[in-house]
Amino acid sequence: MKTAVVTDSTSYIPKHVREALDIYMIPLSVVIKGESYREEIDITTKDFYNEVRNGDKLPTTTQPPIGEFETLFAELAKDFDAIISVHLSSGISGTYQGAVAAGDMIKDAKVYAYDSELSCMAQGFYVIKAATMAKEGKEPAEILAVLDEMKKHMRAYFMVDDLTHLQRGGRLSSAQAIIGSLLNIKPLLHFQDKVIVPFEKIRTRKKALNRIVDLLDEDVKKGKNLQATIIHANRLDEAVEWKEELAKQYPQVEFSISYFGPVIGTHLGEGSMGLGWTIK
């Protein structure tokens, strides 16, 4: 059975990796000053953060139209028997539901929409594994079973650097943002029941990042064979430095570097950092 693998742009898988593994991508968009930009296609992550930094209004985000899914699925159905479509959490976007609805319209291939229940390169881990197995000729049921096993071990934590950004997005009151900034609070967030919720409030950026490492350490000590990704919002140098430190501390863990692109960056803000991991 031939299986195609589809994802959305918020998995932030590098283009050369998508091409090497034949991964198909549907973009989400950001709307800036009334203009819509498809992330990974119409706007670079660097240009996005420059726009946000210099603008007075926070961008908005939009999910892909169902028609884009239907068109892609119909085209893939000409050459594939099955389609596995992996997307960001259904708790923060309707993208997954769009893939489900479009899949129901396709008759010539079986579409399996998969809710990653999170986003960014942690989501990308599922996509890359699915695509690798698909190229090996594995059946969809076997691929989905492996993704479900990965999900049992998936953890991801994000540190928000700029509370005023959350406040501008309506996710924090002005008073909370002011108090938090004065106290140098760096909230840790994570996905719970498919939505982003606070995990802990920590003073200072360094302590917040150290707390994330403590959480990673708990799983490393359990003897799990882990892959991890450092995710940054326009802080590549810091991400590289952190990766070097973590690689020395945990040589048994496979580390990579990814980023918060425009859609997720809209909600978290520049300077945010995250770490996600699961079993290899």
Structure description:
The chain has 280 residues and is α/β, with parallel strands linked by helices. It folds into two domains: 115 residues, Rossmann fold (3-Layer(aba) Sandwich); 125 residues, Hypothetical Protein Tm841, Chain: A,domain 3 (2-Layer Sandwich). It is built from eleven helices and 13 strands. The strands form three sheets. The chain has a six-stranded mixed β-sheet with strand order 10-9-8-13-11-12, with helices on both faces. A four-stranded parallel β-sheet has the order 2-1-6-7, sandwiched between helices. Helix 3 crosses helix 4 and helix 5 runs antiparallel to helix 6. The longest helix has 16 residues. It is globular, with a radius of gyration of 19 Å. 44% of the residues are buried. About 5% of the residues have low confidence.
List descriptors.
2 domains, single chain, DegV_C, 280 residues, DegV, Hypothetical Protein Tm841, Chain: A,domain 3, 13 strands, Rossmann fold, lipid-binding, 6-stranded mixed sheet, 4-stranded parallel sheet, DegV domain-containing protein, alpha/beta, 27% strand, 43% helix
